[in-house]
UniProtKB/TrEMBL annotation:
Protein name: Uncharacterized protein LOC105908600
PANTHER family assigned: GH08155P, LD45603P-RELATED
Annotated membrane topology: Single-pass membrane protein
Gene coding for it: LOC105908600
Signal peptide feature range: 1-22
GO cellular component, one term: plasma membrane
Organism placement in taxonomy: Eukaryota, Metazoa, Chordata, Craniata, Vertebrata
Localization: Cell membrane
Domain of life: Eukaryota
SUPFAM superfamilies assigned: L domain-like
InterPro entries: KCNMA1_auxiliary, Leu-rich_rpt, Leu-rich_rpt_typical-subtyp, LRR_dom_sf
Coiled coil (residue ranges): none
Keyword line: Cell membrane, Disulfide bond, Ion channel, Ion transport, Leucine-rich repeat, Membrane, Repeat, Signal, Transmembrane, Transmembrane helix, Transport
GO BP, one annotated term: monoatomic ion transmembrane transport
Amino acid sequence: MTCVDTLTLLVLGALSSHGWLAHKCVVYDDAADWPADTSCPGLRNSASCHGVTDIWNDLRDLPPHLQTLCVYVHRNKRVHGPLLVDSFSGLHDLQQLHISGCFSRILNGSFRGLSELRTLTLKHLYVPLDCCEAVVVPSALLDLPRLRTLYLHGYSLRKLTPDVWAGLPQLAKLFANATCDDDLAELVCRVTLLTSLTELTLSAPMVRELKRTNCSSNGASERGEATSANLTTVRLTFGLVTSVDPGALSCFPELTYLSLQMTGRLQEQLNKTAIRKIEFLDYGQDEGELSMEEICSVVSAFLIKRVDLHYKRIDVSDFEPDQCKSLEGLSFLTNSVSPLSLTCFYNFTNLRYLAVEGHTINNICMPQLPPVKWLTKIRLEFSFLGLINRIQLSCFTHLTALDLVANAISDIEDYSFAGLGQLRYLRLSFNNISVIRR
């Protein structure tokens, strides 16, 4: 018996125990028994189909009782033809459908028979190098009355006519990675009529100008209030924003997450957007020196709870700690290898999480410093600590998690973790530790 024959028997044995083959698909009753495909999120009654070139033929042997189906079209074709009518009409019990591939058109009837579908994913395989310009006809989603969650990854929202959403009365969550769309106002107008929406995650890295939204042609108000009526979670991600129109984000007055870079002064630009509150700000600045004074002013103005900062240089010499009192999480992320003292941030009495990446750390704790009882999680990465001693960590009496990955630590001295009685998680990977004492 050859090695190939042996391997074939092993595969067939595994399939007979936990699943079975249906042309280009693996069908399994329980994902725990079939760990080979971890990218398909289905747990039970699922099928994963790879190298699909013809949905009609490649999926013809699938059982009708499936609850989850993952389709991965063949990578040799960047754009496939249209998603044909009745492509999935025999799968009446399907609740999740995840398609990786780009179609030229999605037609009326492409999803016929999927009246029980709750989650739909359309993902372009060539993101971020390319985008899918699929034309979605106005009635393409009419057969999905119970759809709750929609993922559009690498599909252009410009190709979706406003009335395409009319067939989704229960859609609550929309996740869109609009890699090829550069007009935020147009993107917002595409979802203005989704009054059932409670959660919106929109990534638009090509947007450079935040323009004021005018969706009156869609039947919504000029500011697009229809969009934000029921939204409780809004996450927006942009690239480098060079200009902001007054009221550009007035339809999203409260943001759960905002990620962007900006030219000009951060607070002045954010004030123009008409945003009132930002829970988590992820901000990057490649040019010039980032000012902690301005960051704290922004934190105070927009009631921010967490800030992640990406930069080359930062000035922490002069700022008002009281303006940062709402912060619960703070991250300094750079590759400048410049020194940074952490002790000036220990006055942020609501701070629970502190992360530093890329700085050399001058001081962590000092003998005269009182206990820092509010910090519970610290991550220091690429901070070149070299060694750990008892004084460095002694002030963090309520620490529950400490991540010291990749810090060139070679020596851990006696009683370095003394006093950290509440510590539950300690990570020391990617160090060159040669000595660990008591």
